[in-house]
Amino acid sequence: MLRWLWLALAIWGAIHPMAYFIAWFQANGWSLMAMVEAWHANDATSGLVWDLTIAAIALTLWVLIETAQTRAWARLLAIPATFCIGVSCGLPLYLFLRSNPGGSRD
C-alpha cells in the first residue's frame, strides 16, 4: 500500500508543479534563462531555489550510492526525474522504485 502512495506522490509531484511552469512559460515566453532569473527575484525565492538544489544533490548522491550497492539500475530514473521535473517527483519516485516487492534488483 505504501508503495502505491509513493507512486501517487511522484505523479502528483510531476503534474502539479509542471502546471505552474507551463503557465509561466505561456505568459512569459519559453526562455529557460528567464525562468531561472525569476527564481532569483528576491531573497525568499533564492532561498527556496537553494533549498531544493541542495535536496536534489543529496537525493542524487543517495540514489547513486544505493544503486552502486544494490545494482538496481532502474532506480537511476529518479535522477533525471529530479532535475527535469523536480524533487517533488524524484524523491517519491525513488521511494517507489526502492520499495520494489520483488527484491533489491529492479
TrEMBL record:
Keyword flag Transmembrane helix: yes
Membrane-traversing stretches: 47-65, 77-97
A Pfam cross-reference name: DUF2834
Keywords (A to Z) from UniProt: Membrane, Transmembrane, Transmembrane helix
Presence of the UniProt keyword Transmembrane in the record: yes
Domain of life: Bacteria
Protein name (record): DUF2834 domain-containing protein
Species assigned in the record: Aliishimia ponticola
